[in-house]
Amino acid sequence: MRKFMIFFAITFLQQTRANDGVFYATGNTLVPLKETTIRLKKEILNLERKGDWMQVDIYFEFFNPGAERELTVGFVTPPAVGDVSDEEAKHPFIKDFMVMVGDKLLPYKIAKMEETGFKVNSKIAEGYDFVYHFTVRFGKGVTIIRHSYLYKGGGSVEAKQDFDYRLTTGTTWANSAIEDFELNINMGDDSYFAIPAGFGGSPVNWAAVGIGRLSNTMQFNPYGEAEGGANLKMAYIRKGKLQLRMANFKPQRDLSLIIFQLHNEVNLWCEKGIKNDFANVMELVWGDSIQVAVSKLTDNELRLYRNLNYARMGYDFKDETLKRTFSKYNWYIPDPALKQETVPDYYVSKELQQLISAEEKRRKIKTETP
Length: 370
Fold this sequence. Notes:
CATH class of the largest domain: Mainly Beta
Low-confidence stretches: 9-24
Oligomer: single chain
Mean pLDDT: 83
Largest sheet: 9 strands, mixed
CATH architecture of the largest domain: Sandwich
Structural class: alpha+beta
Distance between the termini: 97 Å
Number of helices: 8
Number of strands: 18
Shape: elongated
Strand content: 35-45%
């Protein structure tokens, strides 16, 4: 039988971002180098964040209209780069790698690309990349492939965590599209993160499954056009997952899931053109003197900051002014069942809370003093 080489190639999208973080692998999909007959009919992609790692579980249906063909398949991932030890850089940051065709788990080998003898376009892999390779037989008709692994996300001064996954490779099959595509993203309870508004064409229809809220399209992207992403949406998922379903999906851009550092996140709390009452929050976090910064806040700002953690938790304010103010932030979902008890330090630390309360008390005393 004729043999072809196909790749689950993982290009290292994070290399072009900040160089002071730890960057690991990115997720991906099946990539044929030259495939003209086998079609990718269906893909169900499940992503579940587990701390610093992303669990990837994929279901593929391929259709081969001709005779049975045996293909060499490879999954390519770069070594760790950035703030990692020499020992860490010797290994791929992939765990629990498994692939199943039909009802059989396949054996595989791991080697550096330069040691395999495979000839690959440098856009897909470099010699120092690691490749997991195995053999798949595509019989006539439908072949089902299931794939599972974990990969480690990255971080930088811009993002607490980011996970990239290469979707564009799904267009390199014979039909140049994923005919039936489903993506399920579980970033954990009470998660707030950025997603692409689209993948190079028109905006796509993301849906929150469970309890959550999606922003409208945002114009601000801290990474800018160089990272291939003009517009973002912000997703707040209290319980559940994010889902995207597409027919004849032809992504021109890849997927990035980003949990931003506060100095970037705060700029995405409101839609464009809406006043952000917390635009100066970093002065309270990074300023030379927190006391001075607190003293410069207006009475209304002091009250808003004092209640910010409650709002982020979803407290249903009885005060209509507070409820109306916080309702413009895309992470605020008031919960009538929530009790005002222990509040996590989402944005305002206990130290800052104490300073705000002390400042409010000082102003009250000053006002009452004749």
